[in-house]
């Protein structure tokens, strides 16, 4: 799978719907989301770290405005002047087909399904009712975007991440989507690869420091 602006638009649309944010718009050769959070005012997303990204960054003089591109962190570092901080790497991934097998929850855990903003949200709880893991999936125009997958520290290495991804994927399968996307952290990438997800591209982020 090759990366183009349409693919990034589908990912970013799901990301925005999951948070109740405005949908991305085309802007300056890339994509723009007006996030509006105190710690993130907006984000600009580009296919590469070329002239469009560099021109965008040159117009930014304040913190909390993020610039992202489907490139390795060192490529983004080379494209931007020294004040810009490069964050930990992320990875754009896709799943070419539904997960092949049903996955049961480990004993002692239960699941609930709800809806927040534009996302279906699955939460896992332990036998005492305390939160253990959660994740969400946005289903939009044939694409499923998986987002905010998290297992709390006391419950890791018990198979909850695998079970959670299986439950989210079942929702995607029921909707008959043809494309599954997510952006993984370094820690999450290994789990997703074991579940059949494939690396599409690195996904790197830069921001001006707040002080």
TrEMBL record:
InterPro entries: Acyl_CoA_acyltransferase, GNAT_dom. Residues 74-211 form the N-acetyltransferase domain. It holds the Pfam family Acetyltransf_1. This is GNAT family N-acetyltransferase.
């Amino acid at each position: 799978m090759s990366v183009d602006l349409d693919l990034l638009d589908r990912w970013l649309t799901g990301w925005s719907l999951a948070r109740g944010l405005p949908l991305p718009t085309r802007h300056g050769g890339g994509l723009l989301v007006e996030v509006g959070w105190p710690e993130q005012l907006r984000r600009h997303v580009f296919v590469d770290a070329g002239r469009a990204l560099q021109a965008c960054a040159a117009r930014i003089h304040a913190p909390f405005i993020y610039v992202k591109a489907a490139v390795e962190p060192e490529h983004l570092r080379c494209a931007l002047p020294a004040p810009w901080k490069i964050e930990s790497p992320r990875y754009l991934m896709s799943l070419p087909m539904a997960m092949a097998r049903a996955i049961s929850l480990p004993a002692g855990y239960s699941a609930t399904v709800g809806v927040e903003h534009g996302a279906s949200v699955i939460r896992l709880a332990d036998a005492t009712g305390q939160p253990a893991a959660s994740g969400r999936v946005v289903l939009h125009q044939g694409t499923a975007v998986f987002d905010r997958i998290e297992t709390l520290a006391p419950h890791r290495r018990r198979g909850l991440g695998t079970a959670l991804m299986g439950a989210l994927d079942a929702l995607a399968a029921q909707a008959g989507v043809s494309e599954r996307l997510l952006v993984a952290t370094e820690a999450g990438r290994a789990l997703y690869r074991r579940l059949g997800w494939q690396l599409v591209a690195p996904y790197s982020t830069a921001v001006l420091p707040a002080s």
